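Entry type: protein chain
Record version: 2
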Amino acid sequence: MIRELIDDLLDEAAARGDLDGVADLASPLPVTVICRVLGVDTGERDWYRTRSSMLGGAVDPYLAFLGVPAPGLAERRRAERELDDFFRRLADERRRAPRDDMMSRLLAAEIDGAPLTEEEIVTTCRLLLNAGHETTVGLIANGLLTLLDHPGTLAALRDDPAATAPAVVEELLRLQPPLQIVHRHAREDMEVRGIRVPRGTTMVLLLAGANRDPGAFGCPHRFDAARDDASRHLSFGLGAHYCLGAPLGRLEAELAFVRFAQRVVGPRLVDAPPRYRPHIVLRGPESLPMRTEAILGRATPWRSGSP
């Protein structure tokens, strides 16, 4: 399904004669995939994507640092209400006519013999839409930007995807994590490197900084697709906080990079450096307009061993 979606998106770009790595691939692919998982009509993906992006601003740590909410609070609350109303209507539809999708499974699920409440179902779907979209957009967009500067890696993705793609994605997750910062709350008094941290303290952890720790990675600021320890990155969290969507995010990124390398000939960035999205926690370019020599047709074969 993801392969078909990627080819559809590249076909649309080829028909127009131009390509934006964000608007044409990195942004529509993850939201379409998560909509299909949830059982949502993908024909309205721009509506979901816009509201999901509004909610993304809520993770910026304005409240922790400044004691005030991040800008755009009224818009985020409206987007949240609109999404909640939508998922309530979808839940009613699936109660009457279940399908093979996440909403129907949540409605049938039980915990200790009791069904999930409507609020639990609605908020879970809203979280999945947001979390299953925003970070993967950043991963693919950041990855495309990096790969444009490394034509040798693009060639390897094209010629030997099975051997190249997994390692490339891990190194891109390490070097350019889409989620830069996370919050954690101390459940008990503790000491961190000689500093006393009382119970209840909010800690801001710089995942992007840890991923470039020279004590953990050699030449940490350099992209190295052959790095054998890149998977030690913390971009998906760790332990109880490990991202449940990590396998899906990795798969979408692998397939997107491989197909981009196979079908897009001679890509080069139009505007450098690109403008980045106005976020603190979520990092990625707003757009990646490119010039290309050609976008090959979807008949171009997925090489043997592709992800």
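Comment: The domain at 2-295 is CATH 1.10.630.10 (Cytochrome p450).
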